[in-house]
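Input (Thioredoxin reductase):
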Amino acid sequence: MYDVLIVGGGPAGLSAALMLGRARRRVAVVDAGHPRNAPATAMHGYLSRDGLPPADLRAIGRREVAGYGVDLIDDEVVGVIVGEIVGEIDGEIDAVSEGFTVDLGAGPALTARRLLVTTGLRDDLPDIPGLAPLWGTDVVACPYCHGYEVADQPLGVLASGPQGVDKAVLIQGWSRDTVLFTDGYQPGPDDLARLAGKGIAVETATVTRVVAAGGRLRAVELAGGRLVPRTALFAAPTFVPVDGLLRALGCAVTDRGWVEVDSVGRTSVPGVWAAGNVVDPMANVISSAGAAATTAAMLNTELALGALPIPA
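Output:
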């Protein structure tokens, strides 16, 4: 029996595993192998790891946690049963404890005293021809992750509604040559004046295609066939949490539709914790890892003391 079974082996899951392994807990990480940032060639903003390919970070992390005795299981969780389980707890054989039985897609079922879910989110992209093949390279979402690499280039912002205006003003900090593509949305007079004051061009026609050549972005095509040359495009995907497991366990959700956790990562279901993008759409790689480290420390404290001694 594991003390903690972590579902999801990205930066959040591996960071939690590192903390728990160093706390001498028996830990397993089950990872289905679908990292959100797989299309990206490099990650940024992670102190000491800036520019490192995401796959390299995962490989380094897996080696580190394995060195602390953490089991790494490449599989998919297909079901969880909550209830009394029998196993070895703190050296005592056949002790009965509330816990979880976790069914895997290929391997044998596992048992654990606690679950920590770090399955992240997926990006649902705008349904525009040519956009998806460039995702993670010349079509991106986060200026803090990719803005520096495309600074002073002809940039585009694909975003409708008032939030598109704010994003265009933000992106202009990386390039004065910024065009806002509203894809049919008409900004109001105040927003148009604000954009004009910043020197940001506005294209309100429907975007019909993203044009590439040699695997690189070349232009954004508008209704009627007009091409607006651009070399990078900031799009606005819909963030969809990969939280099916948490919902199946009955975890409460917030008004905005995300699983609710307290300040240290506990869900409404006893013994079930969550961290990273699965509960926080705004977290980047380093903040996901940091949040998961805090959650792991508090989880270990609860295991040791039976309850957290501090308000959470």
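The chain has a mean pLDDT of 94.
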